[in-house]
Design a protein that fits this description.
With 439 residues, this protein is of the alpha/beta class. The protein folds into 2 domains: 105 residues, Roll (Urease, subunit C, domain 1), CATH 2.30.40.10; 290 residues, Alpha-Beta Barrel (TIM Barrel), CATH 3.20.20. Helices cover 36% and strands 24% of the residues. The strands form 3 sheets. The protein has an 8-stranded mixed beta sheet with strand order 3-2-1-4-13-14-15-16, covered by helices on one side. It has a 4-stranded parallel beta sheet with strand order 5-6-7-8, sandwiched between helices. A 4-stranded parallel beta sheet has the order 9-10-11-12. β15 and β16 form a beta hairpin. The longest helix has 17 residues. It is globular, with a radius of gyration of 21 Å.
Length: 439
Amino acid sequence: MFDLGIHCKYLFTASAKNAPKLLENQFLAIQDHKIALITPYEEKNKGLCKKFIDASNQLVLPGLINGHTHLAMNLFRGTAENSSLKDWLEKVIFPVEAKVVDAEFVQVGVELALLESLYAGVTTVCDMYYLQNSAAEVVDRVGMRAILGEGVTSFPSPSTRGNLGGTYHIIESLCEQYQDHDRISVAYAPHAPYTCDDQAFYTLLKHRERYHLPIIIHVAETAYEVQESFKTYGMSPVKRLSQLGLMDPSTIFIHAVHLDEADISLVAQTDTSIIYNPESNMKLGSGIAPIDKFLQANIRVGIGTDGAASNNNLNLIAEISSGIKLQQLKNPGVNISTLDMVLMATLNGAKALGLDRFVGSLEVGKFADVVILDIQQPHWLPEYNLLNHLVHSANGSEVNTVICHGKILLQNRQPMTIDPVALSEKVARVFARVKQFLE
């Protein structure tokens, strides 16, 4: 008997082995956390399952992958609006974080973010923040998949409270606790080239000799950042990181809005990945990343929402829609397809994060991360091209069921591992403590 079976009207494979396909009338079976079978549906299939989901009028996709976010910053949503990135960080976010971010803040903010992510069909998040030992506890309890990047800066952070070694203590404890975990992995997350001096990077690289972890870093998000890098170091942020030895296939650049041809060539040569964050880049006035050039250079590109303090939501379905429209605005007729955008949120997002052996597509043997969309809605009719509708018409309300690692986390839009009422009470309690520093 299979643990769970799904009758799918449409199933999008996002397959790595063959061209991605949209199949009709399929049966997907899950056993021991993995996809065990995909085959044309027959009535007898239902009797082979301990649990059965009738999605015979719905669209089934791989679980979506949010390639970059700051989960706990959901508790800063709606603050410091109408600011540039520099003012947003230096005048509001950094000073307030120093006063209010602690284990409780992270736990509550992460739980709120995971609930919002589930409603958007997300099963995997790549997070960058502080006190990720607290975040890991919540991710594990909720049942989602995450890469947790512990923040590294050259100045004291909520993780260090003046002791810069505290960051690496957290990373080491996370590695020990989650080294064999199927859903949680750990990364270094130096905030940006402008918040990390060379010594901070040397320390990270020395530590990396023992713990061979991915590196997640904001890079060339604004023109100002690039200008200051040339003034200070005589080179672009990308070239500096390359010379420091931080670029390789397990390095993930976030934003990468202001890259010139030489930078793009370095990214391609070192097999570094990039995560596109269109809505945050728009909101903070940072610019439009040259995604078409990245794809032409065969760079792995995923997509992320960034944090809810600079987006202001974690709706990855809305993000892929904004992402393709923004590229079209920059360069009408740009050769980026709806399939490209869907793959950024599925298989190619998994490739960018180094997870494609496990997730990102619906294939036998991969972990069963699945999202089911209710497409029986006016804005999905007629059923002309479902991938076009997913990118240009969907708004996230279609997400009906979310399965991660073979476990149902959201069913009929009801969360199974989070109590929304209890969570609202926790959010209110933390916000009562935090709001005095935001006014």
